[in-house]
Specification:
Amdntrnsf_FN0238; three-stranded mixed sheet; 10 helices; 15 strands
Amino acid sequence: MTTIQAPQAVVMIRPHAFRSNPETRADNAFQTDSATGDTAPRALAEFDAAVATLRAAGVRVHVFDDTGAQDTPDSVFPNNWFSTHTGGHVALYPMYAENRRRERRPDVIELLKREYRVSDVIDYSGLEQDGLALEGTGAMVLDHIGRIAYVARSHRADPVLLERFCAHFNYEPICFDAADAQGCPVYHTNVLMGIGTDYALICLSMIPDPERRRTVAERLAETGRTVIDLTPEQIGEFAGNAIELTGHRRLLALSARAHRALTPDQIAVIERSAQLLPLAIPTIETAGGSVRCMIAGIHLTRRPQRTAA
């Protein structure tokens, strides 16, 4: 069953020159060194297998190849530079790391305009020149049903730009500080939490302020969702970095590593609403992101498809 929260179609970028990005290492505690000779081929094989699994499950996947000619090591994570929204709206975002700014590509936006109904494209990317960043659905976890943008504060989520986005796209911002067990701030909100139609995955203990923690939990529950409270250890296994999609049925796409970290009780709650779809991407995860980061959901209406005469 299709819902606003679970898109039927996605964009994914096929990485031919994958490597761990040195420009993002300083604030991404999930990132590890992957500088071995077979890293890029292994990442490519993982990507292709993930796409095949998603398509077999009924998800429409638009794949774009990245040759690496522009030195874009994180191109496999397109959810940070654009997002799409019901009503035909598209947003383009300013990126924190300089080499990530080269990931934006007009051909992706042209595909969206050609195959889906796009009424406007709001481009915030020029604000990079002012040192501002708002890294899309990495920085913001969007509740498309309750119209709430959950945001862990970081230099990848500028508060002024967040307010501007929320005013343009009609979301209520809920901001909070979040940190891991070592006290390192969480670099992207979508490693901490993911929102499905009937449930939400989140590690509440990583929100140190009790009042904000309570507010976040209450707002998630207000929309009728079951809150699945993850542990910091599960977050370290990317259990929060998952995305709900619609294929032949409603799905929760997550990594095989994340799936192994979930408890039977947590899995039972998810499976009341969605089928778990684990994807094996251990090499790609060394770059500090997982399945959610790889998938840019398309929340647009598809144009009627012409049939051949």
